[in-house]
Amino acid sequence: VLDDNDKEQSKKLNDLLDRAGCNLLTQIPELIDWLVIQYPTKTLVLGQYAYMDSSAFVRVSLAMDAIASEVLKERSNNKTSTAALAYLCSPTDVFVVPPAAESASQKNYK
Prior knowledge:
The chain is mainly α.
């Protein structure tokens, strides 16, 4: 809860807001390096939630995939760090699965 009358709290929040954010298209190495070291003794869950219109969406999707791939690889090389992926799926998302997984899915759906 923010107190509008607390000038020190407001200054800290404004400082944070001035520094918050990143560019998924131009800061890929920096993001990977930063993500790899976050919460080293816990599982880091990466959510990939970005959208841009038209061909820019392909670029940002590839950037997110590259970031996730490298973070997963780097954290798997460290015995104390793990990472997992989270997706917010839409009806248009498609994922390739082995035939056995599709069959089990159909069987368990009933």
